[in-house]
Predict the structure of Cytochrome P450.
Amino acid sequence: MESLLSRIEPFFTFQQPLLAVVLVTLLALLGGYYRFRVFPLLGKKLPPRSLGFPLVGQAGNKFIFSANDALGSNQPVSVARILRPESIQRFVGEMDAIVKEQLLQELKGKDSVQVVTMMKKVTFKVTCSLVFGLPEERRKKEMEEGKEAPREDVISSFLNLRDEEDQSLTKDEMIDNIVSMIIASHDTSAIVLSLLLRHLAGDTHVYEAVLEEQTEISKTKEGKDGMLRWSDVEKMKYTWRVAQELMRVTPPVFGNFKSTKDTSFGGFDIPKGWQVFWIACATHMDEKIFEEPEKFDPSRFGNPSKSAPPYTYIPFGAGPRACPGVDFARIEMMLILRHLIINSKWTELIPDEAITREPMPYPAMGLPIKLHPRKDICWFNVIPSLCTEQN
């Protein structure tokens, strides 16, 4: 026993300084935690969650999306100016040509396609084609030297943009704006378009109504140059209402804001640094706001008697924090859907495919579909083997 103790004693003697250091470190960390995380919260009336809380209902939405400087900054003014309706209208014709070209590339020689993958690729390429042309520095130099004629694209608009002091955007501001635009127009548009094709595959009534509207628009283009313009997009009222209703039932995005200073809502304190999470379904599926919320009813939109109160329909945010790219996304989605529906039908290869969230809602298996070109229509020989197929 004495021999065993003689062996153990030096071990404990050696370990005592180490244990002391570990203990002091733990006490310091605990003290720091209480000083910076716990003590500032003492005396505050916190919401019944430890890591923030969802703000439910119209009042919560208004609190988050109003001009509240306690929840971070609003959208950059430069982005809003470039993407406002009167600015984006002039891109419709060019966007239509790019959409058509990209769809032809994706569908050439195919009788089936995975919709989610296709939509991600098409929306990304459409946005990048509109944004990027010549490298920015080269184009800026050519414009300044008068060697390049003014172009109808987004980069040129950013290069020509001036603030109140007649200063152009800095390189970092331009990069931030372009990245914001690509993200906004890519993910959201791809999600909504995938879900639209999924819904139209199973809803014959809505499908036929969208087809009829798009066919009527095509008739007005006969004998002309065939290029779509903003006035044609404005005629796609029912098609857009279908998209709006789909985004009500299955909101494409959610998000959060970080409080930049202490604030309060609904009698609760929200400390600086907390994340405030918002979701759309709280109001989108509220029967007090939308009658029979489980029912897919595009007539909710455009009907004054069914219009929702402000800050209750929020697939693109609302108020000062509304997504500035909503009109860009609207045009992109309407043009892509138009070219698909006037040229073909489609059927789901996996009926009743589930929706998964990663974190945005997508058909779990990517929505594989079979294409059925319309009778007497061979869309630029995209699918030669199916051009003689009867509907």
In short: The chain has one domain: 52-386. Confidence is low (pLDDT under 50) at residues 380-386.
